[in-house]
Amino acid sequence: MPRAAASASSQHARGHRETATSSSPGSNNAARDIAGRRRSEAEGEAPQKLKRKDYERKLKDLHVELVKLQEWVRDSGAKICILFEGRDGAGKGGTIKAILDRVSPRIFRVFALPPPTEREKTQMYAQRYLPHLPAAGEIVIFDRSWYNRAGVERVMGFCSEDQARKFLATIPGVEQAITESGIILLKYWLEVSPEEQTRRIEDRITDGRKIWKLSPMDLKSYSRWYDYSRARDEMFAATDTEWAPWYVAHSDDKRSARLNIIAHILSQIPYKAPKREKIKLPKRQKANGYREADYARHVVPEAY
To answer: Which site among 102, 150, 173, 272 is 20 to 30 Å from 227 CA-CA?
Structure first.
């Protein structure tokens, strides 16, 4: 691995150790944060949501920083892996879209794996995700990850309780091996309230642009809110480690959540802005007798 990437990974690990007692690892910090947020919202008024103009202005600034991150990753050979988890309608897809809006798909790669094949069902559970981990100069985003086993598979009965518990016992070791290989691993849980989840799922039912987001499984899992809460709490307790902590983003206000997550990602990676030479456009060549040809035989109708 390039020296710069190795240095970046070691700085990242030190940063996690220094903030371990305050920001995440321990066991139930994330779950307590969610419960505290619920109580405060029940007792007072909901926070005012971010206006579109303010959101777009702040997002533009963060997009500039993501481009700087992208160029640093490319030049340094750093390896970054970001996981997004959360309930249906929590805002994972929108957050990922906001991250990708102005960066290169050659550097930022997204994976949302389909259900496992019969062959993959016989493998170690996380095995089918490992080939997609980043190589030098890549940022990989998982839209849901190996934590499917701790969440939807456990709640919906696609795995046994014994399988789920074995997964929770072994996956911290797998993640430690990932981080020790030089990968910066960031894990995000998007937390949505039951009221906001209901509003978003009802919107999917009535909006023809969003109906594709709604599956029969989403409807079945919607009714099992507290089963998912218990599974989430056990997942945090077992896998919120010093080397791979969970970060919780409250996402009832989708715009604020996207900005908060992007800003947090940038704060966790020791990237540096690239040095740029001043760019000047060259002069175009002269026509030297060329005339535009009437080449367009099939023109797109200008209906708008």
So the answer is: 173
